[in-house]
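Example noted here:
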Amino acid sequence: RVREHGDTTMHRRVSTARSLYVNYLGHTRKLRVRSLCSANQSIDTSLIRRSQPMTTSPWLLGEMRSNHAGETGAVRIYTGALWALDMRKWLGWGRNHVSYEERLRSFAEQHRQSEQRHLDLLEQVMRPSEFSVLLPGWRVCGWCLGAVSTIWCPRGLYVTTDAVETFVEKHYQAQIRQLQVEGGCPELIRMLKLCCEDEVVHRDEARALAAEGPFPWVPQVDTIWQALVFQGSALAAALAKRV
């Protein structure tokens, strides 16, 4: 009877784990489909340029400058993360977690492509003279953040992405609301909405993958790191609005 009870308990545990894994796969697949659908919708960037919304609104110029700086940094975050994964492979640090790190590499490559599409859109609607003069610094900061987040523990990139995208969603949503109040360019609002939707997908996917573990020895590590990254993102955005 004891053996039968043990077998039944183990069967239930396996069934539960299998069910959770299947649900996770379905959730992740939906997130990726949503991201692809959002990214593939065409934006009439020529219409936005012709309306010249930044020339008549210093506030919007600052916001778009910070958007461009942020997307520039985001591309570099994933570039730094991919470098860190290469280094971990070269040093042999990831030899016991090959499949985990290969999945993280796919995550970083896909997200870098998505952020590059956002950056391309912004560069099509803005003039180079409207970019932040601190772009070289944003590139370095983004690369370092991605590399540091990944080199010590690959799961760190998921935690970092969650924090960054949480800020970016708030950042984009505030712009969208203000433009709607002011009666801003509809195509620009649509572009910002699509970019924001992508960022939300990135955040949700990163959060789901981070929930798999492995978790840090001290649970507060995630909370502290996310707070630092969130506040750092806010500080960088505020600075990019000015210069």
Q: What stands out?
A: The two ends are 74 Å apart (CA to CA). The helical segments are 2-40, 45-51, 58-91, 98-125, 135-151, 155-182, 186-210, 220-242. Residues 133 and 243 are 6 Å apart (CA to CA).
